DNA sequence: TTTAAACTATGATATTTGTCATGTTTTTCG
DNA sequence: CGAAAAACATGACAAATATCATAGTTTAAA
């Protein structure tokens, strides 16, 4: 059986300020679950009774709008805690979580997390900083959405995925997202995302191989207008 | 001299879980400052050495873009703490704070806040919930920006101002924002904001008297398409 | 392997929103 | 008060993006 220690040792974890005792405790009561691409981890407007720690894979947090279109708010990868915010504010989820590839998640009951927050100052402060960081990112995203063009946002998203989830030996983004996923992150129509990616190819900023994307000219891509 | 107790008694305060001792402490070392409309409380990319608690008035948190346009991220009114996030994450501000009318702010040194967070569990958890709440709001704003039309966002903003800052006896919004301010909140051109407000008037959803706005048909305004 | 489904691609067109120009009204301040 | 500045208003046009249509391509499943 896998322990949380490994995760924490690898610094992949939103819980790396827990004491050894606490880790043992969390490790003992967590349950690991597997998900396939497209699986729904939870829907919006659910009451969670725990948080999910990403051990492996990638998922998206999305909001479904009235017209059936979905907006992706955030991608969550290794070591990130999903549902933390809902647990802390004791509210229903405002977003759905959907697996983007094969995932392994550790589910930690609410009480464990809350108890750790209440008793371990370092962990509590860590969570605090984590939320503050998240808030800053959310503000930045809002600004980008308001002030940048679709083209600029798409370029920024490709760079984000490259930086956060890495590239393989040939330089292709490790994470393979569909054009629809990109559109949903950027907040545009799928056709627009496709069109702009085609433009990027023509302009030599990226190249593709099947679904895989490689950044060919980072500097220009970063500064597209 | 004014004490923090008054603010806290009136529940106007992001610090109402502090103990009596702590309040005395904060009260003792805070300094009160006055600002006029348009005054800059701080710029983006500054290192704050404390937080500002709004005792009176209203300000906006804005981001200036390359082309000189500004995006308003949030309006801050009575009892709200400004700069909290930057203090906690120990980063430079990512936004500027600008007074929208005559303001009175209490400045509380960083050390006081951090010390209170580290020693008072209730306060710490309160801040945690506050940030979680803020994060949710930021996510909602992002979704609105991505999925709603300018028209819908402007309608929502009017309703927001009405709910959060109230109306006078005649039903006019207490807070008077310029069309430019509305445009900056909604993320559009000033002319577009003006045009849409004119439409709302023609459609009988709002009425105006000088700079003052009154909601005439809440239901329809709330559900505009 | 073959067949359907999902994904990618691109053109044509419509809609939304931004920009520029110009004039009016309101506010501010010497 | 009266002039200058700021804010408001609206038309005309341009640019960005969405929508609809149609077809090629890849993927997955029977």
TrEMBL record, chains A, B:
Could you tell me which PROSITE patterns the record lists for this protein?
A: CNMP_BINDING_3, HTH_CRP_2
Kindly give the Pfam families that the UniProt entry links to this protein. Answer: cNMP_binding, HTH_Crp_2
The record's GO CC annotations read: cytosol
Coiled-coil segments: none
Q: Which GO terms describe its molecular function?
A: DNA binding; DNA-binding transcription factor activity
InterPro entries listed in its UniProt record = cNMP-bd_dom, cNMP-bd_dom_sf, Env_Response_Regulators, HTH_CRP, RmlC-like_jellyroll, WH-like_DNA-bd_sf, WH_DNA-bd_sf
UniProt KW keywords: DNA-binding, Transcription, Transcription regulation
The scientific name of the source species is: Gelidibacter salicanalis
Name the UniProt record assigns to this protein: Crp/Fnr family transcriptional regulator
Keyword Transcription belongs to the record: yes
Describe the location of the Cyclic nucleotide-binding domain by residue ranges: 14-105
Highest rank taxon of the organism: Bacteria
Which stretch is the leader sequence? none
> Which residue ranges does the record assign to the HTH crp-type domain?
148-219
């Amino acid at each position: 059986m896998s322990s949380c220690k490994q995760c924490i040792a690898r610094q992949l974890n939103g819980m790396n300020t827990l004491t050894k005792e606490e880790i043992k405790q969390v490790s003992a009561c967590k349950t690991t679950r597997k998900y396939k691409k497209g699986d729904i981890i939870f829907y919006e407007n659910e009451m969670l009774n725990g948080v999910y720690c990403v051990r492996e894979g990638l998922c998206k947090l999305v909001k479904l709008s009235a017209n059936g279109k979905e907006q992706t708010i955030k991608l969550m990868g290794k070591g990130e805690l999903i549902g933390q915010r809902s647990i802390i504010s004791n509210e229903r989820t405002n977003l759905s979580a959907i697996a983007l590839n094969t995932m392994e998640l550790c589910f930690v009951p609410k009480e464990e997390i809350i108890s750790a927050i209440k008793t371990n100052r370092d962990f509590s402060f860590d969570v605090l900083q984590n939320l503050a960081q998240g808030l800053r990112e959310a503000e930045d995203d809002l600004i980008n959405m308001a002030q940048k063009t679709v083209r600029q946002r798409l370029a920024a998203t490709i760079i984000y995925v490259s930086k956060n989830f890495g590239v393989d030996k040939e330089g292709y983004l490790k994470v393979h997202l569909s054009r629809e996923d990109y559109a949903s992150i950027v907040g545009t129509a799928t056709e627009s995302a496709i069109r702009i990616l085609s433009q990027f190819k023509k302009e030599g900023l990226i190249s593709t191989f099947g679904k895989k994307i490689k950044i060919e000219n980072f500097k220009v891509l970063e500064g597209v207008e």
